[in-house]
Amino acid sequence: MSEETTAAPPVRHWPALDLTGVDFDPVLSELMREGPINRIQLPNGEGWAWLVTRYEDVRLVTNDPRFSRAEVIGREVTRLAPHFIPQASAMNFVDKPDHSRLRRAVNTAFTTRGIERLRANAQKTLEGMVDEMLRDGPPADLIDRVLAPFPITVICELMGVPATDRHTLHTWTQAILSSSQGAKVSEQAKRDMEAYFAKLIAERRGATGEDVTSLLGAAVGRGDITEEEAMALAGPIQIGGEAVTNNTGQMLYVLLTRPALFDRLRDEPELRPGALDELLRYIPHRNAVGLSRIATEDVVLRGVRISKGDPIYVSYLAANRDPDVFPDPDRIDFERGTNPHLAFGHGPHYCVGGMLARMEQELIVNTLLDRIPTLRLSVSEDEVPWRRGALIRGPEALPVTW
Ligand code: HEM
């Protein structure tokens, strides 16, 4: 362990801000200016937690087994979310080696091959949604017509959820993610989703399909994971699938409010792969910070002692603006050479759906730019409504015309 040389910084209150647009959280900016390691108190939970914001520290903390996710269960760590209902066997709250075993059960659905298997159907679905929107004519809400329904369809297909149940799964997802409907509604939705997946997975025991519930059924059949673990794996994947809506909503907001960027991407398609990564780096995907970790022993980081039992957060958003890794980090630069952004996290808890999200975003951006080259906002920039009280940031509607 390296030596403790620096006193703990003061505890800073981080209020829940209802930020609009893609502005970087001013509290986070201030924390980053104050130093690489901070202590924060969020609106809910108890006490304070450490926060690291530098790229290298974020990679270290997220990849070091001395910081545990499993230990978070049962603790009232200071947090943004008003209610906190962790599912004990869900992959977000399990440490190695169990975590690797759980992810292995669904891994083949998320490999390049697993994702590419979905591409042709996804493209067809998307074309159908755009056809309908064009047929109905402008103005249209891009969230309602494309950015919400498309990821739901894709994630349900990946999960092996029948088309008739998609709406129900979407309703549960929204209730679980929303703080405005209260903890009871969220808890009920979580139980309903668990029961739904328990039944679907039980029916698929010994199945040979490539969808996630078939993979889970097969893994239970082989004894690799328990029924409870299978159910707890399905929920976060289903829910995570809808993260694409908000993230891509922010992406399109950036393009629609900066016509020079929109025009370049429309006219120079070869820039798009790099541009998507640059937008992923730049977009403030969430409010405040996500799930914490707990130190399982004393660790000295940049001369500051993190004591055993202390909660610690990382900010992937802050890491993505670290000037040591991304020169001129507040500028959107489609021609940044390498772009090792952490939009999908780092370490063992790296986003399961990263490649899927990237594929969906590629299809959405390509299809919209190629098919609707005159796409633009139909309201002024400040009239775009943003989600309030949300954990994940995004526009509630994107009114467009063409
Ligand atoms: C642009 C869209 C998305 C973004 C920006 C995003 C971001 C992230 C981040 C930063 C993490 C890691 C958090 C940590 O350190 O614990 C994560 C984890 C996760 N994501 Fe995503 N995600 C996206 C889309 C998706 C999709 C489409 C799915 C489902 C297919 C998904 C499912 C998950 C799951 C299940 C985890 C937990 C992984 C684990 O703990 O092992 N996400 N995501």
From TrEMBL:
CDD domains: Cyp158A-like (cd11031). InterPro entries: Cyt_P450 (IPR001128), Cyt_P450_B (IPR002397), Cyt_P450_CS (IPR017972), Cyt_P450_sf (IPR036396). Keywords: Heme, Iron, Metal-binding, Monooxygenase, Oxidoreductase. One of its GO terms (molecular function) is heme binding. The keyword Oxidoreductase applies. Belongs to the cytochrome P450 family. This is Cytochrome P450. It comes from Streptomyces liliifuscus.
